[in-house]
Amino acid sequence: MNEEPQSAKPLDSEAEVTPRPPRTWPTWIVLFPIFPVALGVVSAVFLFGSALAMEGPEFFEDPEKIQEWILELVSDPIGLLILVLPGQLCFLGLAVGAALFSSDPLSKRLGLVRPRHSSRVWVLLVLGSPIIQFVGAFLAGMFFDLTEMSEHMEMMNGLVTGQSGFLGLILLVLVVSVFPGFSEELFFRGYVRVGLGRRWGFMLAILVPAIIFALVHMDPMHATAVLPLGIWFGCLAWWSHSTIPAIGAHLMNNLTAILIAREASALQADSDAAGTTTAAMTELGTFALIGYGACLLFLLAGLWSLFIERARPVESSAETP
Asked: Which residue from 108, 111, 118 is spatially nearest to 310, judged by alpha carbons?
């Protein structure tokens, strides 16, 4: 009995096609070999270039003069441009430069797209974001004595509280709040999160940028305190499928930190002059309690609104990650 020949399956049938996993190696290369080298080189060039221009070549003959010069910069607006701005320019340049090599549009590769769900959700969560500072402080307090700031933290606090005058305050808000909100988020929650999220999912796409974000703060106490913020910013970006809410939350967080640090410094100065330290600390505690209490209410309202919207059938569930 002759058997009928079996028809051969087409080579291009769907059963034979295995989808190629999305490429993530460009993101890893930018994040590890390129990013730390670029950040170190840019910061060093700005710092030593500024010292050479302002003090002259002989300035480098005495290492103690370099340390003294850096301490003097802390209370000068120019210090913000020399000590903080170069790193932000590096974040922004790497994010945009690396994204230009992607086949995706620049806005999509950096997550600069309209957030999913309603604007009310993200406004509430952005306003509630400063409460994560409290979580970060609690975490840092488990490992460090927060009553004794590290040298790095003292320098950062001096940069924030030492500025005065219209120019100093404007530069402070721009360089410490606005610029980091854009540049750091475009790199960590934009370029890196989008790149890793293509293949590795929530945990890796959120935790890796958050850990590197914490480490670049260059101090164990500071890094521990900002780690919860990095995770929170990543969650906002993941839930919204956009970097925009994370940018707003980062900006809001830094602006709140500036206000609290300057208020604490002013109260401390007044208490030292009047000898009423206890009253000043009570006033600061009341100020912080009211502010963080309001942020907690915003946060809870935002999370509840997000839960409700993500639970809606069909239309919303198809969009949620």
From this structure: 118
**Residue 262 CB contacts under 8 Å (≥ 6 apart), including other chains:** 160, 161
Give Cα separations from 155 to 74, 85, 201 (angstroms).
7, 15, 37
For 48, 51, 274, the CA distances from 83, given in Å and listed in that order, are 11, 11, 34
Rounded to an integer, what distance in angstroms lies between the CA atom of residue 60 and that of residue 40? 19
Report the amino acid identity of residue 128.
G
Check if the beta carbon of residue 96 is closer than 8 Å to that of residue 110: yes
CA distance 182 to 170: 17
DSSP state letters, 66-127: HHHHHHHHTTSHHHIIIIIHHHHHHHHHHHHHHHTTSSS-HHHHTT-SPPSS-HHHHHHHHH
Half-sphere exposure for 264 (CA within 13 Å, toward CB): 12
User: What is the full DSSP assignment across 243-292?
Assistant: SHHHHHHHHHHHHHHHHHHHHHHHHHHHHHHHT-HHHHHHHHHHHHHHHH
Give the model confidence (pLDDT) of 231-289 as tens digits: 999 999 999 999 999 999 999 999 999 998 898 888 777 766 665 566 666 776 787 78
Name the token pair of 38. Answer: 């670029």
Number of neighbours of residue 36 by Cβ within 10 angstroms: 13
What is the Cα–Cα distance from 291 to 298, expressed in whole angstroms?
Answer: 11
Q: Name the 3-class secondary structure at 313.
A: coil
Q: What is the DSSP letter of 317?
A: T
pTM score: 0.89
Measured distance CA(274)–CA(207) in Å, rounded = 47
Name the CA dihedral angle for 259, 114, 32, 173, rounded to a multiple of 10 degrees. Answer: -20
What is residue 43's DSSP assignment?
A: H
State the distance between the two ends of the chain, measured CA to CA, in whole angstroms.
57
Q: Cβ distance 70 to 83 under 8 Å?
A: yes
pLDDT in tens, 104-152: 999 999 999 999 999 999 999 999 999 999 899 999 999 999 888 888 8
Rounded Cα–Cα distance for residues 181 and 163 (Å): 20
